[in-house]
From TrEMBL:
Bilayer-spanning residue ranges: 81-102, 130-151, 181-199, 242-265, 277-299, 329-353, 442-461, 467-489, 501-525, 531-552
GO MF assignments: chloride channel activity; chloride:proton antiporter activity
SMART domains: CBS (SM00116)
Database matches in CDD domains: CBS_pair_voltage-gated_CLC_euk_bac, ClC_6_like
Protein name in UniProt: Chloride channel protein
Localization: Membrane
Gene of this entry: Clcn7
Similarity-based family: Belongs to the chloride channel (TC 2.A.49) family.
Topology with respect to the bilayer: Multi-pass membrane protein
Domain of life where this protein originates: Eukaryota
GO cellular component terms given for this protein: lysosomal membrane
């Protein structure tokens, strides 16, 4: 079940080290890239580190906190509100930028292609129009895919799995950099204009998070600019709270759903929550929606009419025309079941596809070629479907942006073209609101089938793109089909309005794919502007989640698992009470003495095989009869700052005062602490001594060896720890629990399974 045994060294952790033999040759031979990367989803990657959510309460920290008086605390609180307002405004503006650029570029593309098709329909030679459309799509997507594949691969996909991991406490490299934001925004514009089956809503969440992380630090490490503001917030604790506000602002800019944004942040993201945070996050979301609304209203020329709260606007659903009755509830529940099954199918297909991609399509150039292929195929499928469709509708009284006549009579347009020849957002709104009879059931059936596979193939490409809108579109198409067939069955009864069923189908499909319940209900309610539908939407989403979870997990969780991220869920696995901390912990632990030789510290930090990030500090007593009890915990980043500032004294005069460091020195090095290799320590300095007592955290969290796994898990998860020291009854360090030790245990099909750890 694993790769051949030559790859395995079964030790304390069975390390699957694929590069073991290659390391010796690395200096002379440039490494050949393998054609196939062996990938096993039963692995946890060791390349992901944890965030330090827990403040290190060392003497420096306590001194600084004691110096701050009440007025200073108030200014910090005001700064937090100011940052939240700025996050909201900037996220709203970024959303406006994306929206306006996409609208203009896509409009230009569709006009060019439409004129071309109209010209060639008259005189024959439509294959040229197909070529034009496919070439336009492929070239636009090529640019979008190139920047992602070669400049910033983290910007691929919707970014929601990455933000979920970040808020869970996993440090994903480069995820909240300015560069990622720029690539993300450009990539999203290009992939939507390139006609892929994607939406621009998912990436807004990632963009909001990057904006939040950047503003709250008051500087940009990419631009090498430090604005000397907000220095108090330069630590993971504060940064993470702001990132959850940014994610919420992104949701609310995308869907015009401020409350939905807060709930999204609560449900999908933040592991730590308090009431003040809720209120600040809501403030950020509200501001972001309002900014987007005002700017877009001015842009559309009606400055006083705030009518576009989000990037996607489902339009108003009137309760009078489209109420629902009690006897429709079972029908909605049935739609939820269908959505759950289809969602599970989508996820299973995407899982196999992603496994294939990880194994074979891992070179950037191949990824770009695949993206171009998908773009060309999407255009071709759309063209062939429009060409073969004989579904003609009268033009007058319909609100189609680019009516394609093709082979229809004068004054009519091809109704398949409204679905394919449009940005996905517009198509969703059309499916919700077009009057009954606008679509032929055959058209909808074919469209659903083709779009399902296209969207499934597109998610996971190396372009930045969301999965929200395609799933809504698939769902709306089959929901409308369902509504039409119902009204056939009931002889055109008044309650079977296809638009209402399109909405329920969209909810069911989206819920079946991403498995969000609470936030999605509220988002759909806010986007439709109708509270009456709250109950049926909730039922549909619950059913879709229950049915889908029976088969396979949600799309985002699946991608997190495929990337082998050590993600901690809310609870420990159900059957894990039999395990204790002694079985879970990593041993042996590298400990430091309270007063340690500099040479020892440098050697420990330079040791690549262990690569620990936290070191318990024990009492440094030459008298061996006494117990070396635990005195504190110090982090790799702190040690590096100490060595960089040369905070040590020669052995002879230990009573000399060391050079005083301020907390500011640690904050200035955050978040990119230099690697140990870049710090030069001379031979004489190696003999000096370093006193760790004022820098270590004197009160680290500890557990006894007998603690059960769920208990350890709760403590670790609720406090957002990075290191949990395991001690025996004499307070001696016996082991250390980190995120990987807990994330290893997962509930599989047969019960509790333990994953192995891999270096890759």
């Amino acid at each position: 079940q694993l790769t051949p045994s030559s790859f395995l060294r079964i030790g304390q952790l069975s390390n699957v080290d694929l590069n073991e033999d290659i390391h010796e040759l690395e200096t002379e031979v440039p490494r050949q890239r393998p054609n196939e990367i062996p990938h096993n989803e039963k692995l946890l990657s060791l390349k992901y580190e944890s965030l330090d959510y827990d403040n290190s309460e060392n003497q420096l920290f306590l001194e600084e906190e004691r110096r701050i008086n009440h007025a200073a605390f108030r200014t910090v609180e005001i700064k937090r509100w100011v940052i939240c307002a700025m996050i909201g405004i900037l996220t709203g503006l970024v959303a406006c930028f994306i929206d306006i650029v996409v609208e203009n570029l896509a409009g230009l593309k569709y006009r060019v292609v439409k004129d071309n098709i109209d010209k060639f329909t008259a005189k024959g030679g439509l294959s040229f129009s197909l070529l034009l459309w496919a070439t336009l799509n492929a070239s636009v997507v090529m640019v979008g895919s190139l920047i992602v594949a070669f400049i910033e691969p983290v910007a691929a996909g919707s970014g929601i799995p990455q933000i979920k991991c970040y808020l869970n406490g996993v440090k994903i490299p480069h995820v909240v950099r300015l560069k990622t934001l720029v690539i993300k925004v450009c990539g999203v514009i290009l992939s939507v204009v390139g006609g892929l089956a994607v939406g621009k809503e998912g990436p807004m969440i990632h963009s909001g998070s990057v904006i939040a992380a950047g503003i709250s630090q008051g500087r940009s490490t990419s631009l090498k600019r430090d604005f000397k503001i907000f220095e108090y917030f330069r630590r993971d604790t504060e940064k993470r709270d702001f990132v959850s506000a940014g994610a919420a602002a992104g949701v609310s800019a995308a869907f015009g759903a401020p409350v939905g944004g807060v709930l999204f942040s609560l449900e999908e993201g933040a592991s730590f929550w308090n009431q003040f945070l809720t209120w600040r996050i809501f403030f950020a979301s509200m501001i972001s929606t309002f900014t987007l609304n005002s700017v877009l209203s001015v842009y559309h020329g009606n400055a006083w009419d705030l009518s576009s709260p989000g990037l996607i606007n489902f339009g108003r659903f009137d309760s009078e025309k489209m109420g629902y009755t009690i006897q429709e509830i079972p029908i909605f529940i049935f739609m939820g079941v269908v959505g759950g099954i289809l969602g599970a199918l989508f996820n299973a297909l995407n899982y196999w596809l992603t496994m294939f991609r990880i194994r074979y399509i891992h070179r950037p150039c191949l990824q770009v070629v695949e993206a171009m292929l998908v773009a060309a195929v999407t255009a071709t499928v759309g063209f062939v479907m429009i060409y073969c469709s004989r579904d003609c509708q009268p033009i007058q009284g319909s609100s189609v942006a680019y009516p394609l006549q093709l082979f229809c009579a004068d004054g009519e347009y091809n109704s398949m073209a409204t679905a394919f020849f449009n940005t996905p957002e517009k198509s969703v709104v059309n499916l919700f609101h077009d009057p009954p009879g606008s679509y032929n059931p055959m058209t909808l059936g074919m469209f659903t089938l083709m779009y399902f596979f296209l969207a499934c193939w597109t998610y996971g490409l190396t372009v930045s793109a969301g999965v929200f809108i395609p799933s809504l579109l698939i769902g709306a198409a089959w929901g409308r089909l369902f509504g039409i067939s119902l009204s056939y069955l009931t002889k055109g009864s008044i309650w079977a309005d296809p638009g209402k069923y399109a909405l329920m189908g969209a909810a069911a499909q989206l819920g079946g794919i991403v498995r969000m319940t609470l936030s999605l209900t509220v988002i759909m309610m806010e986007a439709t502007g109708n509270v009456t539908y709250g109950f049926p939407i909730m039922l549909v989403l619950m059913t879709a989640k229950i049915v889908g979870d029976y088969f396979v997990e949600g799309l985002y969780d699946m991608h997190i698992q495929l990337q082998s991220v050590p993600f901690l869920h809310w609870e420990a696995p159900v059957t894990s009470h039999s395990l204790t901390a002694r079985e879970v912990m990593s041993t042996p632990v590298t400990c430091l003495r309270r007063i340690e030789r500099v040479g020892t510290v440098v050697d420990i930090l330079s040791d690549t095989s262990s690569n620990h990030n936290g070191f318990p500090v024990v009492e440094s007593n030459p008298d061996t009869t006494q117990v070396a009890g635990l005195r504190g915990l110090i982090l790799r980043s702190q040690l590096i700052v100490l060595l960089k500032h040369k905070v040590f004294v020669e052995r002879a005069n230990l009573n000399l005062v060391q050079r005083r460091l301020k907390l500011k020195d640690f904050r200035d090095a955050y978040p990119r602490f230099p690697p140990i290799q870049s710090i030069h320590v001379s031979q004489d300095e190696r003999e000096c001594m370093i006193d760790l007592s004022e820098f270590m955290n004197p009160s680290p969290y500890t557990v006894p060896q007998e603690a059960s796994l769920p208990r350890v898990f709760k403590l670790f998860r609720a406090l957002g720890l990075r290191h949990l020291v395991v001690v025996d009854n004499r307070n001696e360090v016996v082991g250390m629990v980190t995120r990987k030790d807990l994330a290893r245990y997962r509930l599989g099909k047969e019960g509790l399974e333990e994953l192995s750890l891999a270096q890759t």
